[in-house]
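Help wanted!
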Amino acid sequence: MDTGNRFGVIPIFTTVAVVSFTWLSAKPDAETAPSAWSNPVPLGAPVNSPFMEGGASISADGLTMIFGTNRPCTDKDTISDQDLWVARRSSISAPWQAQCLRINADGFIDNVPYLSPDGYWLYFVSDRPGSIGTQTDRRDVWVSRRRDVQNDEGWEEPVNLGAPVNTEAPEGGPAYFVTREAKYFRLLPKEKLIFNSARETGSFDLWEVSVFDGMAFGTPKRLDEVNTLEFTEAGSTVSADGLELFFQRGLPGGLTDLFTATRHEPDERWSQPMRLPAPLNTPEYTEAVPRLSPDGSMLIFQSNRPGGLGSGDIWITTRPVAARSR
Amino acid sequence: MTVTKPIPICTALLLTVVTPSAAQMPLTVTGAYQVTHVPQQTLPFGWMAEAAVRVTHGWGGVGEISGTYKTVADSALTTDVNLALHAYAGGVRWTVRPEGSVAPHLQLLVGAEHARVHASIASHEIGESMTHLMIQPGVGVSLALRGAVRAAAQIDYRRVFMDENAARNRVRLLIGFRVGW
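Answered by r_m:
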């Protein structure tokens, strides 16, 4: 009798396990966006490494990139955490040189950076002391400023953005952009920050808030037109004109894909999000934290697909600027 | 019920003061209230000052300056945004029956429009201003009232030569008084 029970339980357990695995690995079903993006390629060393890299934000001149990684800052660094690194190159064709930034907090998460197009402001995610939230997940959006855009050591003491961006729930994925609305003759630059927060649904959704002088103010707006209840939406980036949105979507704890949405005017709602096609997305691997270059010609994202140097790596795809999906 | 009374009263008053006009005055000056529609909104408060000279029978030269304004409560910025458009233009006018008590006209002006948008956030001013070339065809009519005074109404289309497609077009409606010498 015992044998019978055992043989009865195993198929049931197997079925449940397979179904659960399939559900967890499944990616959201959505229409695929037309695309002019090139075949993605991974960045080599020293930007990528056997450790995990991601959340790379590139400067307007394409010569500076700030990214997050869990690799040690130095050979003597034995603390397991996530840090911000900067990579610089002397020209577009020159090799990258990478180094750890000084504003990292030892033992805490510092990741998902976003460098403002003018190079003076650096938004990033951290759970360092001063963060608001529960003991299990204290990730908040922080910002640092520098007076000289050429000085990677000049980042000032980071400041927690506080309310209205940060709450007891985890926040992350900051991206800064500026819109100019036709109703104001394009003469009023409205600075905005898009970020993800789990404040309402318990899983990440995209939110938007106004920014002035680096700091957020006003009441954040939940982007209902792109958020879903069943999936997480996070790691977003918005084009310099505020008309194109890229973000990651997936099941909580599961694989994520890159999605895009557009609009004709910066004060309109976003269109129905569409999944970016292969080879930008893959069915078996995760694609996350897309970052659009300031000129809109380059999309940088994180993926654990084969071809990198291990774990998650930074991948790049390009397109002619005229081929935007508007 | 009393609300409707002023309308016929004003109409009757207007008709009683209308007199046949003499020939077109060599110089006229016009002051008017204007409302301007721009993409996505209407700027309800504005003014226009114009001087016109007769060149030949029916044809004349026109110069005008105008300003129009609006304050918008912007929910995202949680502050008021102030819009101002000022225009400086000159051109030609053809009046169909300059000697008539009702004188329609067509005109074409060219000039410059100066747009300024600004808001105050945390005691700091944000916003920009810009000047663009413009062309402004219009059609209007003047109605002789008493002596050298005429009522004037006009509608104009203004095309501003700026890079941004979505903010190039305006339509202006004005109503005012014209005095001739």
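OP: Thanks! One thing I noticed: Residues 1-7 of chain A have pLDDT under 50 and may be disordered.
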